[in-house]
Design brief:
Blueprint (H helix, E strand, L loop, with lengths): L1 H13 L9 H8 L9 H5 L16 H5 L15 H33 L3 H7 L13 E6 L2 E7 L2 H8 L12 H4 L5 E5 L1
Antiparallel strand pairs: 1-2, 2-3
Length: 189
């Protein structure tokens, strides 16, 4: 009996099923459940002769007759009237709209911060009086931190630029495509 009790204790701790070499009466004695045991379970399984291994599961059968499921109807809330639902939808919509506007403002401020500052934009606009540049001379100005060369070309310089073989140039492009007005050559350095 001691080894049987040890096996049962071990099985209950390990939460596994053990095949016990005992009769139903022996198991009832070990577990002291004879008073609570419903005898109609034996009718379903039949009697097994002593000494033959069997597995018997004991379930509490009185729960079927005595346990009632509690009723929680008094704790349920009603579906609510339409005015409460409309107010809830209004609040959700308003919160969503305000969240969208806040996100839009945050993105707009971030992009405005990342754009060029006013002093850089002021440097981007450069005006040059071309009448002050004599023929055959050039002027160098600064535009966005880079030098821009403006040359007032003579007729000989224009003729020389037109006579160059385009195939020999690193960037093959004729002079008419490079300069809108042939007398002015503007180059970015």
């Amino acid at each position: 009996m001691a080894s049987l009790a040890t096996k049962l204790a071990s099985a209950s701790l390990n939460r596994s099923f053990v095949t016990l070499p005992a009769t139903a009466a022996g198991i009832r004695t070990v577990l002291n459940r004879s008073a609570h045991y419903s005898s109609h379970d034996d009718d379903h399984h039949g009697h097994v002769p002593a000494g033959i291994a069997q597995q018997k599961r004991f379930n509490h059968t009185s729960a079927r007759e005595t346990t009632e499921i509690p009723n929680f109807d008094k704790y349920k809330s009603g579906s609510g009237d339409a005015s409460n639902r409309a107010f809830s939808y209004f609040m959700v919509g308003t919160t969503g709209a305000l969240s969208f506007l806040g996100a839009k403002t945050t993105v707009a401020d971030f992009l405005a911060n990342m754009s060029a500052s006013a002093d850089v934009l002021a440097l981007a606009k450069v005006e040059v009086d071309l009448n002050s540049i004599p023929e055959g001379r050039n002027v160098t100005i600064k535009w966005r931190g880079k030098p821009v060369f403006i040359r007032h070309r003579t007729a000989d310089e224009i003729e020389e630029a037109n006579s160059v073989n385009i195939a020999e140039l690193r960037d093959p492009q004729n002079d008419a495509e490079r300069a809108q007005k042939p007398e002015w050559l503007v180059m970015l350095g």
